Every structure is written in C-alpha cells, then in structure tokens.
Amino acid sequence: MSKPRVRFAPSPTGPLHIGGARSALFNYLIAAHQGGELVLRIEDTDLDRSRREYEDEIIKSLRWLGLTWSEGVDVGGDNGPYRQTERLSIYQEYVEKLLESGQAYYCFCTEAELEAQRKSLMEQGETPRYLGKCRYLSEEEKQEKLAQGIKPTIRFKVPENQVYVVHDLVRGKVAFESENIGDFIIVKSDGIPTYNFAVVIDDSLMGITHVVRAEEHLTNTPRQLMIYEALNLKRPEFAHISLILGNDRQKMSKRHGATSLIQYREMGYLPEALFNFLALMGWSPEGEEEILSPEEIIKSFSLERVAKSPAVFDLDKLNWINQQYIKRLNNEELNLRLQPFFNQSVYRQQLESLSGGQMEVLLGDLRDRLVCLGEVDQQLQVFFGDIEYQEKALEVLRQENVMLVLDKFAGELPDFTNPAEIKRFIKTIVKQTKLKPKDVFMPLRCALTGQVHGPDLPDIITVWGKQKTLSRIEHTVAMLKN
Q1: Minimal CB count within 10 Å: which of 19, 313, 389, 458?
Q2: What is the domain range of residue 152?
Q3: What is the pLDDT of residues 268-312, one digit of tens each?
Q4: Do 474 and 396 share a structural domain?
Q5: Rounded to 5 degrees, what are φ and ψ at 395?
Q6: Which of 173, 254, 431, 481 is catalytic?
Q7: Domain closes at, from 288, 315, 342
Q8: Does 408 fall in a domain?
Q9: Which residues contact 296 (CB under 8 A, 6 or more apart)?
Q10: Is 254 one of the annotated active-site residues of the chain?
Q11: Are 20 and 10 spatial neighbours (Cβ–Cβ below 8 Å)?
C-alpha cells in the first residue's frame, strides 16, 4: 500500500475552530501512522473575510497542538504555491479546458433572477437548484451581454441522469443523483474560483490520496467528482468525519463556551491533553485506557475505528484529562508551564518573594489541585489573598478549646524549613492537649485560612513562613475576642 498524502486546508477567516483542529489532527494521525505526508494549504478565496493574521494564528495553534507537516504555506515544498489566491493562473488553465470542451459555460443571471427561481422551486416542493437558463444562450447572445459590460459567472454543466457514488471510508457507500444538482458556479463574477472547483485542482496537483474532512462537506463531494471526471483527474479516497456537538446535541457554537483552539490555550489547557481529548472525539482505541501519549495514538489510529455518529464535546472529560496531564508534570515542568500565568497573576510579587524551597512546596500543591493552568490565581488566593471566614469555619472557631489550641500553636511555633517539621509540631500539640487530631488541625486550618477545606495545612504554613503564620493567628484571635 502506498503511503498516504493528506492535507488540511483551512480558510483564514477567523481563529482555528475546535472542529477544524480535530480535522487537522485526524489528517496528521493518518499520515503519521502510515509514514505518509501532511500538506498545509490555505483556502483564502473569501477575499472579504480572509486575513493574514488569522492564517498566522492557525499555524501557531496547529504547532502548539503538536502537529507538523512536510509541505505547506509556511515551509514551502514542490507543489506550491499553497495559498489559493496565489494559484489563480493555475485554475484558469483548467477553466479554459472546461469551456473549450463545452462542460462549462458563462452565466449572466442576476441575483434577483436566481432568488426568484429558488423560491419557485421551493414552493413546488422541489430541491432548489439552477435550471440551466444560460446553458442555451447562443454565441450572439453571449457576446451581446459581454458587450454590455455584464460580468458573468462560469457554471459547470452537470451531466444528466447520472449517479455519483462515494465509497466513504467512514460513512460507507453514499450515492447522489445528478438530477438533484443544478449547474453550479465554478468561477465567480470577480474571477475567483469557488471552493468546489479550486479544491479539486489543488488536491489533484498536490497528489492528495485521502481527503479527510467534516461530514458537512459530504454534499460537496458529487460536484467535485464531476470535475475530476470532466478533467480526467484521478480522484482521491474520501472520509467524512462526524460533526462535534455541544451537550445539547446542537452544533458547537459560542453558546457552548470556548470554540477556538487559542481560547483553550489561553485558559491553560495543555496541548498534549487537548491532543489526547480531540483524538478520542469520534475515534476509539482498542483498549480501555483513555490517557494516551501522542506516540500511542499515532501507533493505533485508523479510520476503521472512527465512528459515524456525532461526537459530543464533553468539557468535564476534557477537564479530567487535562488534570491527569498536569499531575504527571514534575515541579520544573509545571513551573515552566505556569510562568505565563504567574507573570499575569495578581500575586506576582508574593510569588517572586518565595524561596526555592517554598516554591517547591507550592508547586506540589498546585499540581494536585489545578484543573487547568489558567485558574492558578483562584488556587493561590488561599496562600496570598486576604483571609475571608466561611460560616462553617466560624462555627469551628466558636467551639470549646479553640483558644487553647491557637495560644499553644502561636506560643511554641518553632523555626521550620519544611512541611514535615510543621506536621510533627502540630502532632505534639495533639499529645499535649490530649485532644483528637481533628480538634487541633481543623481549628488551626480555619484560623489560618478561614476555610474548612483546602491545601495541606503544613504546606500553607511552609509557603507563608513563621512571621506571616503568626500574624494570621493574631488576626483570628483578635476577631474572635471582638
């Protein structure tokens, strides 16, 4: 079997959508699994909406996710240019072939005429389509309209009474009747080719063997097959992967939360976690394990295990996967990943004042508690924010023997260097007071943090140091006396 050549061809009309990222990932996995090649092509023929900054952001997002490609708009290659707007002369050559063979023609119909035709067909219960009015213009009529300065589109002449079959690698056999497809535009009146035409030329000239894309493109496939056939070009294999739905089973949109890859990056999701999560959206490995390295995913990926049914974007699952990846980071790696968030933190000065040992303790606690890196300030609040007493904490502080515990803790607190020393010290208070451990640890936690739950108490005290710990106790004692 020959090695596959696949492509990802986004339109630079906005940030990379999570669905586009998954399509790119699946193409990457197909190429990587079989030692093939991935091409990155930019479909920028939507002149009004395409922006170079979006193109740059798409490339940056794909690189962040961990994808690489052998040819493309940023790395070059033997099959460029890789932007459609730089390939217009190439498309024109094939347009001329279709015009000369009579398989395409100029269309002078106005938008108003086309809309009236569309409404009429819908009222009759028929599929809206172009009925071929300009197919039958004489050469004289065509020249007259051109002389009037009317800028025509160019339409492809759809063969009559034909059935086009797609043996889709995900969806199986899908058939389309040409009678339900009107003559479609391949070049707009401004001279820019349409998607269905340009994509065929690009895929053919770039040697693409497998077209893997979202199922919403399935209805485009028969039009593309017609162009392949008309130009005597070799058609690729097709695989249409399911859409990504929100929890309400509707297509992912802004109402479901973040939809672009850059948003997840900014929220502090790890690229390897998102790589893992997106791979599992519509594809299932043979085993039960869900935390898989990129190498493990590449080794086992195949289109045979890609589901036809829609994939539901489960944020809880993404959070769980991301948390597992964070827990696997050592302190040095975690600190490096957190630096962009530390630099923007409201607690930046407090973080910079910590000793190396204190930072090690803090990182260990954050690793166990963070779901995504962007919530670090929320987790740092208990360490560096002002104390705010929860009602449950106040109930604990009103109990008997609380002042005894606080006085003994403040009066005998030694100099210390690590959480283990703090834990041993608190255990001595338990022995001396003959109280239950919970009746010592819980009042201390509530007095120091104002909360009944949180990071390990010895960790918090170590990060604070002796002086701040004592000032917290004094603050709570004064509050209780008042």
Answers
A1: 389
A2: 87-241
A3: 999 999 999 999 999 999 988 999 999 999 999 999 999 999 999
A4: yes
A5: -60, -40
A6: 254
A7: 315
A8: yes
A9: 285
A10: yes
A11: yes
